[in-house]
Structure prediction request, 92 residues.
Amino acid sequence: MKQATHYTDHDAFLQDAVPGSFWVSDGPEHVNFWFFCPCGCGEKRVIRVGRGYKPEAGPSWHWNGATEKPTLKPSVDLGHWHGWLTGGVWQK
Ligand SMILES: [Zn+2]
Prediction:
């Protein structure tokens, strides 16, 4: 289990590189949800999410819009790590 810590400061997000932490940036039609792999490998990923909905196009996730206790649906598959972000916790 890893806590998903939200960063508002992009530089601090990149510098700290805390496993499971995330930073979001609003795109024109969706939200980019950036996060460091919860496993601790240091890999940074981005997925397309909707604030309270799942974007129709492409691989995408439903985000509950919360930064305190974020939940993504469906599960997140990073290849070497596959699990869920639920209530602010990454779990395999
Ligand atoms: Zn990893």
Q: What stands out?
A: The chain has a mean pLDDT of 96. The chain has one domain: 2-91.
